[in-house]
Amino acid sequence: MKLLASLLFAVAMTVPAFSTLAQEAKPAAAPVATAQAAKAAKPDLAKGEASYATVCAACHAADGNSVIPTQPKLAQQHPEYLVKQLQEFKSGTRANAIMAGFSAILSEADMQNIAYWLAAKPAKPGFAQEKDLVLLGERIYRGGIADRQVPACAGCHGPSAAGIPSQYPRLSGQHAEYSVAQLTGFRDGVRNNSLQMTQIAAKMNDREIKAVSDYIAGLR
Fold first, then answer.
1. How far apart are CA 165 and CA 80, in angstroms?
2. How far apart are CA 67 and CA 120, in angstroms?
3. Dihedral sign, CA of 213, 210, 176, 119?
4. Quick count: other Cβ atoms within 10 Å of Cβ 132?
5. pLDDT, tens digit, for every residue of 123-158?
6. Are 86 and 56 in contact (CB under 8 A)?
């Protein structure tokens, strides 16, 4: 009996020890996998610059500060927003024949690399041009249009139109012509990749769209 008791005691002591060792061994692999995933996902800015120069620079300028009023400035834009737009151009969710062609040749890694490279480029300021409309634009941007339940643009894009990373794009200094085209597109159903913006723009007339777009162009 003493021998049996000794054996049972030995087994009881050994099993927990083995379980503890096994539990301690499992987490060791997790940080390694996490580190490898993070390393794989890290954008390559050098590749981003090279891809941008080949695919994007002709329309958006070498540093992302487009000088063509109908082509958006991309410098200092939130990378999450840029990646989302490229993905939606590629999938057709955002309709644009030119951008569909360019985005089709980009991989997910290319999109990440380009977006993060652009985010690191400083944006050049823009200027409001419609003096007669700028006060109306300011009222809409800061206070919305109460009688039609149009919310203030500043509520999502911030007082200086810097936007909120991962949620709302930077608008500060954007070409007024481009902003007019996008708001009109949302209103008329030409651009339909944001239900929120479609609902807002649907309540705005041409003069209001032009006014707020011009005001945004001068924000910094």
1. 7
2. 19
3. positive
4. 8
5. 999 999 999 999 999 999 999 999 999 999 999 999
6. no
CB of 220 closer than 8 Å to CB of 172:
yes
Phi, then psi, of 150 in degrees rounded to 5: -90, 120
Alpha helices for 92-153 (secondary structure H): 97-104, 108-119, 134-143
pLDDT, tens digit (0-9, with 9 covering 90-100), for 54-64:
999 999 999 99
137 to 100, 147, 220: CA distances (angstroms): 32, 16, 15
Contact between residue 89 and residue 146 where contact means Cβ atoms under 8 Å apart:
no
Q: Which of 147, 164, 151 is nearest to 197 (CA)?
A: 151
pLDDT of the residue at 136? 98
Contact, 137 vs 215, CB < 8 A? Answer: yes
CA distances from 211 to 56, 144, 182, 216 (A): 29, 12, 14, 9
When pLDDT is averaged across residues 163-177 and rounded to a whole number, the result is 97
Place of tokens 């690191």: 120
Residues 89/90/92/96 CA torsion (nearest 10 deg): 40
All domains in the chain, ordered by first residue: 41-119 (1.10.760.10), 134-217 (1.10.760.10)
Scanning the structure block, which residue is given the tokens 């005691």? 9
What would the pLDDT profile of 93-126 be if each residue is shown by its tens digit? 999 999 999 999 999 999 999 999 999 999 999 9
Model-level pTM greater than 0.85? no
9 pLDDT more than 70: no
Q: How far apart are CA 91 and CA 193, in angstroms?
A: 11
